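Kindly review this protein for my students:
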Amino acid sequence: MYPSLHILGSRQFGGADQFYVRLLGALHEAGQRVIAVNRSGSPVAEALKTSAIEQVHLPLANQWDLWSVWRIRELVAWRQPCIVQTYMGRATRLTRLPAKAKAVHIARLGGFYKIDGYYRHAHAWVGNTRGICDYLVKSGLPAERVFHIGNFVPEPFVFSSQHLEELRDKHNIPSDALVLFALGRLIDKKGFDDLLHAFAELPAESNGRPLILLVAGNGPAVDRLKTLSDSLGLTPRVRWLGWQQPDPFYAFADLFVCPSRHEPLGNVILEAWNYRLPVVSTATDGALELIEDGETGLLAPCGDPSGLAAQIRRALALSDTERSALGEAGHALLQTRYSREAVVGAYLELYQRLMADRGD
């Protein structure tokens, strides 16, 4: 057993925050003593409230928060954890272990973040893609202390046909429609304007079936995107879902589209594969690691609506059996490399290795 503190300073509930909750729950169920350190009232604190995981709440403020720095050091001295794992820049910057501490500080990164002033003082670093690990080494961190461990997604839900039909009725989706689904924060780098332009290049029907695009998510670009959708004449064919539990939409969609211009990993691709849903994605850093074009999904150029439209058209031209095979291949890869068991096992193996290096 490797007692561990897990520190996250975010007040959001994005991909990294949700993974924090999943990983802590999985480590706890694997018999590890886990203490969650986060901000009071944050979404992760609320998500962990009903679990058996102990929580400690600190301000973890954006500025140089000396109170949190001191409290983290005090927690380490009192609880004597083997591992102190931090998530993203704020928590890592505020975690400054005394030289005499036996704990190993692991900084986990899910993006190409600024290293100096935030990450260099950690003892080891985990990147959730190989590209991030390469970036860390190129930034001058020792390669022998940089480790690649991916993410895992929750087990898929099982929905009754009645529940899915009710959702179709609620969002006015014809029963014979071919449904394209996209999900994410509505900000520029997610490329939803590219997706709308691509969708405008597609016919209203494919093989006699109406094409419907579902967009789940919200963000500062929402009004601009809705205006763009109207100007392109897409209003009857696009459904704006807002923030939603996405699982039922993964379950009844025919194709998932990830139009991002920049994506270090792409959790949404893993989530789509979790439901055996075929994927068309732009060729971001993350998607290039995950997808083999034509085998586990289809790849389109970033920032190229016509190129994205061409790959969606390619997917729609496949038979139902061929599209299903793409989703099944993605699901098989998910089970092999990004399962809960594989990821938790990799973390436990890393903890054992790092503690052995320290002589414990």
Q: What stands out?
A: Residues 161-337 form a domain with the Rossmann fold fold (CATH 3.40.50.2000). The longest strand covers residues 209-216.
